[in-house]
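Can you please make up a protein's amino acid sequence together with its fold in token form to help me picture the idea?
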Amino acid sequence: MPDSEGPSMDPKTWLDAKPKTAAPDSAPKALSPGDKTSFDPKAWGTTAKPAPAPKPPKSSSRRGLLIGGAILGLGIAGGGAWLATRRSGEPLLAAPPPAPPPSTGVERRALTVSGPEGIESALTAAGVAPTQAAAAAAAARSKIASTPGDLTIVMMLKPIENGFQLVNLEARHDDGSGVVVSVAENGALTATATAADLKTAVKVVRGEMDAYSFYTSAVAQHLNDTLISPFAQALAYDFDFQREIHAGDVFEAAFEDRVNGRGESVGVGRLLYVSMETPTKSRALYWFQPAGGQGGWFDGNGASTVRALLRTPVEGARITSTFGMREHPILGFMKMHKGVDFAAPIGTPIYASGDAVVVNAEFKELNGNYVKLHHDNGWDSIYLHMSAFGPGIAPGVHVHQGQEIGKIGTTGRSTGPHLHYELHINNEPVDPMSVKMDSAKPLSGSDLAAFVKERNRIDALRVAQTA
């Protein structure tokens, strides 16, 4: 390329090129071929240094110093304030506290009292004037005086000088029944009774026996403890809960439960269905009450579980001695044991094994307190060593199967708390654990049809909850 056409595009020629010095305030000129600029770093230090920037006017410097000093002063002052703030333990940038919510001027207090008679003392203890507390309690009692039981009290109170003024009072039982006392502006009281708010729900529990007892197993599955005894009694004809029930056996119960508006159980539930399954047998029973008859437990075909006599007249007892020859624990020689011994704590209830008439209820030296019953089928049952007789138990009194006739004790010739139970047929002692008990007459006709309908209803509820 000719020199007149500009700088060479060959890098080898760039080392010989030197820029020309441009005139001040003039546009840069194109480099000539003779201009050279060194690419050696050692030579860079010899290049001309740029002229220093012109100094600002004195007035600008003074104003900058004043502004800088002010900023520095503010910084020092701010730093001092920051140090003071940090020394006082407060946060560096503490947010202002939230404004308290607006007060309605009315306080709510709730507590439980043992009955209507506790309303007045609860109000006075809350700071209500005695005259108003007495008037409000009297108004409440006028509506619920005849209803016993604990009350949940909710008081709405307005602060006044030296106490509180009652605005509203609610006193309710667990089932929702109770009273509401309203206070007007002029102090007049109005009491309004509230009705019970209960619903009936059917609940089903199912579980396995643990290694301890049926009681602990049932409680673990949330079966109400008041229903555990009826459960065992319903199956007492078919199972010996002390010797035949073991860990892993399956039980199930369906029961009616009354719940209030808060979903809490109120009162004692009612069993509808019980079942027990062991490796050797199973049994399922339904509660049913025939029209005009007495309620009881029936199997799926409508056959009653009632037998002539109960095999075990003591609940939760263990057998310590069976029927037959044995070495007498006190006398020390072989002797015929004419009954079965059931060991249980003192005070455990003893039940009549069947419908009967009381023949004897007295104390005998060797037998202690004992009762003899004569049953409708001609058999006799005898109960020895009791600590006390049941309510109203006396000769000539009629008793029903399962009725309490006494309590476990150790009176007479006895080595510890237990019941000695005998069964006599034709005045001869027999083994009560081996005698076959006859069943009651099964349902028929309209009673059987009604039972089948109830059985199907219970089964449908069970399936709905256990599916």
Notes: The helical segments are 58-87, 119-125, 130-144, 214-220, 228-234, 445-466. Residues 167 and 389 are 55 Å apart (CA to CA). Confidence is low (pLDDT under 50) at residues 1-5, 19-36, 59-92.
